[in-house]
Amino acid sequence: MNRSTKIRYIIFQILVEVFKKNRNFETVFNKMITEFNFNQNEISFINNVCLNSMRRSIHCKIILNKFIKKKIKTNEFILLSSAIVQIIYLNIKPYAVVNETVNVAKKVNVYSGFINAILKNILDNIDNVKETKISLKDFPKWFISEVDKTKNIDYNSFINTFHRQPSLHLVFKSEKYVNNFKEPHTKSTDKSAFLEVQKKITDIKNYKKGEWWVQDFSSMIPLAINSKIKNYDILDICAAPGGKAFQILSDNNVILNDINYKRILKLKDNLSRLGFGAKIKNVNGLNFSEDKKFDIVLLDSPCSSIGTIRRHPEILFKSKGPNLKDLNILQTNLLKKSSMLVKNRGKIIYMVCSFFYSETVGIISNFLKENKNFSIERYNPNIKLLDIKKLISSDGYFLTIPTSYKKHYIDGFFSVQLTRNDKK
Question: Could you give the C-alpha distances from 29 to 11, 15, 56, 192, 312, in angstroms and in order?
Answer without folding.
Answer: 9, 9, 18, 30, 12
